[in-house]
Amino acid sequence: MKSTGRLHLQRNIRPAVGSDGPMKRLGVDLHNQIGFKGHKYDVRSSSFESSGKVLPWTGSSSNDLISRRGVFSRRHYGSVELLPQLDASGQDPGGRRFRIENGDSLGEKEEIFGSPCTPVLENPEFQTRWYFKYFLGKLHQNYVGSDVDKFPFFLSVVLTDANHQCVPQYRAILWRKTGAQKILLPHTPHKPMTVKQILSNFPAMDKLEKGPKEIFSPEIQKDLLLLEEQEGSVNFKFGVLYTKPSQLTDDEMLSNENGSEEFNQFISLLGNRVRLKGWDKYRGGLDVKGDMTGEYSVYTIYEGHEIMFHVSTMLPYSKDNRQQVERKRHIGNDIVNIVFVDGGATQMSQFNPAFIKSQFTHVFALVAYDSSDNSYKLVVYSEESVPLFGPSLPCPPVFKMPQEFREFLIVKMINGEKATFNTPTFAKKRERTLDMLIKDLYSDYMSDSSKVAMLNRRAFSDVLPDPPRSSRRKEEARQVEFVRIGQALKLDTIVKGDAPTSLATTGLFKRAPWEPQCFYPDFGHDIMCGDSWADSRLVISTENSGVFVIEDGVSQRQIFDKTIQANQLNVVEAHGILLFRTEKGRDSKIYVFRLSEFDADIQTEVKSKPDLKDHKLERTRGCSMYAISKPGGSRLKMVICVNRKLTLMQWKHSAAWTAWCPASDTDTVEGFMYLREFQIAEQPSIITLIESAVGGNSDTCSICVGYKHQFDIITDGSGTAQRLFAVQEGTKAHLVSATDLYEDEEPELLLCYNNTCHFQKLSETNNTTEFDFHWNSIPKDIVCSFPYIIAFTTDTMEIRLIINGNLVQTMAMPKLKLICSKNDIYFATTAPEFFHGKMERLQMDQQKAERESMSPPASPHLSPETKPLRLYRIPLNALTGVVGPYDRKCVNETDDSNENKTVENLKLSESKSRTSASRSCTASPTTGLNATNLLLHKT
Fold first, then answer.
1. What is the pTM of this model?
2. Which PROSITE patterns does this chain map to (predicted)?
3. Residue 111 has what DSSP assignment?
C-alpha cells in the first residue's frame, strides 16, 4: 500500500524510565501489571483496557503519525498496511495497524539495495545525556526562571573544551516540561556571553519579563540529574516468544514448555545464560531472591546497555493455567518482543501481530532460522504510531553471519524501544512527569532565598564571572563543595548501574560508516571553497594563496596564483569545465575554463589575472552568488544573482550529447546561452536551482531564494515569486541553506535556518513545522546522504538520520571546513591523526615530530590556528551502504570485567585524561574515537 505521508520528525524525547521498567519513575510498576487483553491494568498506567474490552484507538491517522521520506523510506523502512482485523479466534483485536518491514523493495527491481547503513544506535546516551557527561562533577552554573507564558524553566550552562581539541564551547541545557533543549555555542576569548544572550538562542526565550536567578545550592545537581533521567533508562528488557508451526494464539505460544534446538541456539546467540538467584546486575523485573520468575534467564551487554531477555520457555510454566499469566506478566509488558518462528521462513507468513493481545507491546521482531545455510531471516512489525527507526533491513532480510545478525537485531530493538517513547501515549506521560517535577523544584528554589543568588544577587551575569574580592574565599569554598558533591553523585550513579552508556563494552573494532579517510595530511593554506574532480582530485581555492589541484597521494599543484581568489567554485565533469566566481562587489565576475587546461601534463605555468580576460562570462559583473543544477540532469543550468536580478543560463549541449561526442564539446564562455531574467524584491542570501519535470517538460526549473526571514520560490516560465516558508515572527533568523532532496518524483526542499531543519514540498502551501528537527549547534553547511544528514559548524560535525532527525554522532573537529559533497564528502580540519596509505607523509611528519621533541613541550592550550589543515574524505558508498565499506568485528559484549573500568577511570585525574587524549592511530580525525579516550571522556 503506497503512502504519500509526510516525514514525521518528532522531538528526541522519551518518558520516564527506571532501572527495572520503562515507566517506573512515572509511579507505575508495570511488572506487577498484565498487558494482555482480558486482564485489568492499574489506573495509574493509563490503561488501554477496561473490563476486558479494548478501548478504540483515538490517535491520528497513519498519514499524520508515521514518518516517511519518499520512495527511500518505503523501500527501506516499510509501508503501513491495514492488517486483517480479526485474530485467530475471530475476535476484533482493537483495530491496531502495523507498519511492516520485510526488506522488499517497492521500487523497480534494479533499484534493490542491501542494507543502507551499518547498525548504529540512535540518540545514544553518550551523545544525548549532556548533564551527566559535561556538567555533573564540573563547575557550572544553573538558573531558574519563568518564560513569557509563566511556565517555570531551569537553565544549565558550562564552558567546556570539546574532547580536548582546543575548542572552548558553551553547552546550555534548557529544562522545560516538554523536555530538555540543548544547544552548543562558540566561545569568544575575553568576551563571555551573558545568560540573556544564551537564552536568546532558544525558541521564544528572548523576551522574558524577568531575568532568571542563579542557583548556588550544590543540591541542584541531584535534582537536574533526576530531570535528565526522565529521558529513558540505559538498560532494556525484551521479550522472547517461542512459537511452533500452526500456533495462532498467544495462549498457545506461551504454553510451549521447551524450545527446539534451533530456538536454544538462537537464545545462546542473544546472550549468556545466567542464574537469577543472587544476581546483582540489571534484573529487568525478574525475581533474584526466591526463583519466583524462573531459575535462569538470558542477559547481555551491548555498548554499555545491560539487556535482560524475558524468554518464554525460561519463565515459570503452569499446567493448570492455560493463559500462563506469569509469563504474560513479563512478556506482555515489554515494549519490544522477539517472536522466534519454528519451522523456517515459510511459517512467517502465518504470523499476525493481532495474535498477541498486548496493548503495551509496540514492536515485534519476527525471526526464522534456515538450517540449510545457517541463516536468519528478520521481519519487523511496528505499531503505526511508532516513528520510523533504523537500521533498515537489507533486501532480502537474510543474515548469514550470526554475529552480524545479533548486532543488527539488538540495535534494531533498542532503537525501536526508544522510538516507542515518542508515541503520543508515552510522550504525554513523560510531559506530565516533567511538568510536576519542574513545578515542585521551581517552588522549592524560589521560596528558599538561601539557595538562589545568595552571594551577590547575580542575574544575567557572565557565565564564568570573577567574584568580588569580599566574597572570593566564600565563593571558592562553595565551588569546591559544588564539584565534590557532583563527583560523588556521578560515581554513585555509575556504581548503581544507572549511568548513561559507559562505552566500556562498545565494539571498539567496529568502524562507523561516517568515519573519514585521510585524503591529504598537510595543507598549509586557509580554504575558501573547492570541488572534487573525478575520483582522486580536488580543486581548492584558498584565501590568499591562489587555487590548487590536490591529488590523493600526490603533492599539491598550484593552477592560479595568489592574485586570484575564487569565492565559489564548481567542477562540471559532464562538460569538462571549471566554473568559479572571483572577488566581491562590483568587480565580481564568473569565469569558465576547460578542465583539460589543468592536467599536469599540459599546464606548464601557473595562471594569473591576465589569463582571465578571455574567460569572463557576460552578464555576470557584480554577481554576489550563483547556483548550478545538480549533476546527472539533462541540461546544465546556472542562475546568477546580481543585486536584485536573477539571470538564468543554460549550457548549449545536453549531457547525453557531450557523452556521445565528447571531442565536440570544447566551449568555454560561449557554451552558456542566456535564457531569461527575474526581478526579485531584495538581494538574497541563498539561491538554489531546482530542476523539476513539470508536465513532462524536463527543461523547466524552479529557483529557491532565501531572504532575511523567508524563502520564496520562483517558477521558470511564470517568473513570479511565491512565498514558500517564513521564519516565525519575532525570531532572529540566520538562513543557512536550501537543499534540493528531490525524492518520490516530486522536488522537496530541506530549509535550514538557525539550528532548525524544515522540510517543505513545493506542491504544498501549508508551512507546517511539525516535522522540523533541531541541531545542537548552528550549522554553516548541510549535507544530505541518505540515510544520514550531516551539519558542519566551525568546530563540530553533527550526524543525524534524515528519516527521523535522531542524533547518531557528534565529532569535535577544530577549524572544520566543508569543501564539497558532490560525490564523496570532503572536508578540512586541524585534527592531528595520521592514516594508512600516506606512509611517505607520515614518515616526514614523524621526523619533524622527533626534531620538535627536543624542544620544550607546547602549551596544552595551543591555538588550533598553528596546526596544518588535513583534508579528509567520507566515501558516499560507506554512508549509503551500496558497498560494504568495512569488515565489522564483534567483540565479547558480555565481558563482566569491563564493567568496573568505568568506576576506575572516574578516579583518574583531569591531567591524565588530557595526556591520554594525544595522537592516536585510529582512522578518525577525532581523538574521541580512540578506544581509551572514549572511556575517559565518558566518565
1. 0.79
2. CNH, RAPGAP
3. G
